[in-house]
Amino acid sequence: MSKVGTIGVVGLGLIGGSMAIDLKRRGFAGTVLGVEADSVNAAAAEKIGLADSVVPLDECIERSEIIIVAIPVGGAVKLIPQILDKFQALGQKAKDKIVIDVCSTKENLARSVHYHPMRARYVATHPMAGTEYSGPWAAMPGLYDGHACIICDSQESDPKAVRTIEQLYDALNMRTIYMNSSNHDVHTAYISHISHVTSFALALTVLDKEKDEKHIFDLASGGFSSTVRLAKSSPDMWTPILTQNRDNILRVMDTYIEKMNAFRDAVADSDEDRMRELITEANKIKRIIR
Fold first, then answer.
1. What is the pLDDT of residues 120-164, one digit of tens each?
2. Alpha-carbon gap, residue 241 to 163, rounded angstroms
3. Which CATH architecture has domain 4-179?
4. Within 10 Å of residue 267's Cβ, how many Cβ atoms?
5. What is the pLDDT of residues 183-222, one digit of tens each?
6. Which of 99, 104, 152, 150 is nearest to 130 (CA)?
7. Other CB atoms closer than 10 Å to residue 56's CB: what's the count?
């Protein structure tokens, strides 16, 4: 495994902070620089030791060989072209620098840099791991172990840069999958984004009922907790995801509502045969998820 001298992490929350921990501990990075706009989070990240030091963005870009953008996608769409602008201004000093993102949507990011002269220095990635918690306090070692990382549009990035980022994710014990940005956003709408939307909706439903029945949460068991767990996810992270991947998410939501209505009709009609049929069909998910 190659070792990188200095890595910069922009956004020292759950995702960026967890990457910083393991890339340093596992010897991939010699030094980790952090960039954090929130002063409270910056102080916490330094105290916890997520980065060797927290520095301004320009200093991070100048000193780092790899810059990891781990902020909500709405900000990343604006920031990554700006970082590539900085690379261009640095000239030969930036010829081997790489910027990656870890965002959950990719099409708008791809469009934002498509014609940039330094496009080849950007590698679009999405490590498929996380929890419902956020902020530097949520960062943890081993978060990425055994999970998949998607690299998008690798043909548009410099091959050597892609190999370096593959090694970075090897250090995080992740397996790598390749796809284009459009397919990525369709797939994540189905396997990730709709899960969060339904969890948010279920939480709102239960909270509405809780106004009248104060003991409803006393009855909550492990099944309910695991189903609604994602509703604790950060609105600052998820609002831009839902906006950026709107069209794909709407298509998935329409299908979900169709299936929910099928269950509703079966329950309303006390149609046990139809209920059994729907549940049996749903059970086929066991072929994919064990």
1. 999 999 999 988 888 999 999 999 999 999 999 999 999 999 999
2. 28
3. 3-Layer(aba) Sandwich (3.40)
4. 12
5. 999 999 999 999 999 999 998 988 887 666 666 666 666 6
6. 104
7. 10
Domain range 184-287, its CATH number among 3.40.50.150, 3.20.190.10, 1.10.3660.10, 3.30.780.10: 1.10.3660.10
The strand pairing partners of 101, in sequence order, are 69, 124
Question: Hey, where are the domains in the chain?
Answer: 4-179, 184-287
On whether the CB atoms of residues 195 and 203 are closer than 8 A, the answer is: no
Which tokens sit at 2? 């190659």
CB 107 within 8 A of CB 144: no
The candidate with the shortest Cα–Cα distance to 36, out of 23, 48, 24, is 48
- Can you tell me whether residue 10 is helix, strand or coil? strand
pLDDT digits (tens, 9 = 90+) for 84-123: 999 999 999 999 999 999 999 999 999 999 999 999 999 9
Determine contact, residues 110/183, Cβ cutoff 8 Å. no
DSSP assignment letter at 136? G
